[in-house]
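User: Predict Luciferase-like monooxygenase's structure from this.
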Amino acid sequence: MASLTDIPFSLLELAPIRLGSSVGETLALSLSYAQHADKLGFNRFWYAEHHNMPGIASAATSVLIGHVAAATNKIRVGAGGIMLPNHPPLVVAEQFGTLESLFPGRIDLGLGRAPGSDQVTSRALNRDERRADKFPEEVSELQRLLGPRQGNHPVRAFPGENTNVPIWLLGSSLFSAQLAAKRGLPYVFAGHFAPRLVYDAVELYRREFQPSEVLDKPYVMLGVPLVAAETDSEAEFLATTSKQRVLALIRGQELWMKPPVESMEGLWSEQEKAYVDNFLSLSVSGGPATIRHKLEMLVRELGVDEFIFTNDLYDQQKRLHALDILAAIKSE
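Assistant:
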């Protein structure tokens, strides 16, 4: 089993907006969060694309990537991910080709086939509701647009061509796992919000993986929710922020990040509690020893090559300190 010392730690950011705060303040906090991760040696900092979600400020993903990359030094910055049905592949190739040209060797392009929104918003973003069915073809088109010039295709991405921005496939189902295996691409499982199929998806990806020009063996990055604190009891308290937001999500309410509460009792029904617990079932929560144990368990059970954490704590200093805790665990 690989040691945690050898496994890269990365971050997935939704730019969560605290109740009563502004987008501007949120993005300033998000930048300082990324800079702290950069100083601590985290591997990647990815923004997730979401639309029409009051409480989440990461809709303009490529804009935020450029903003963070310009203010950091070493950390890779990217999309986790771009929801491809919302965008023409040519536009994505031009945006990420531009980013790669500005920040060589530091840009990642994660791709998903979900809309990153509800059906009404999806229609507002994209009039063709069958675009998701074309996901494999559009991944191929992006690979062509970002790769070296081949043949005499009339459509070329400038910037973009021959930037060879690394492409990752993201998913929470067997579809993306199978496609990533077939194409020989690295795979990210979205365990931070849809953990149900994690074992099946990772096993399928590893079993069916076909080596490619970009990857000679399977590479699995696992998304997990993180709540790291000095003690297990403090982490349990801080975790109520995420639980309140998932509860708001299943109720169709706005997703403002709320302060932690002493108890969730009286805030949810038994059925809602079960749903929230399932949603967060891969959560890595606790003090340093508990965090280390849970991460080692996931590595042993799934053969994880890299972790990417969501870290949605209400208090910015607690959020930054969670990264300190992770960095200390990794260096032990």
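Strands lie at 9-13, 44-47, 76-83, 107-112, 167-171, 187-189, 220-228, 284-286, 306-310.
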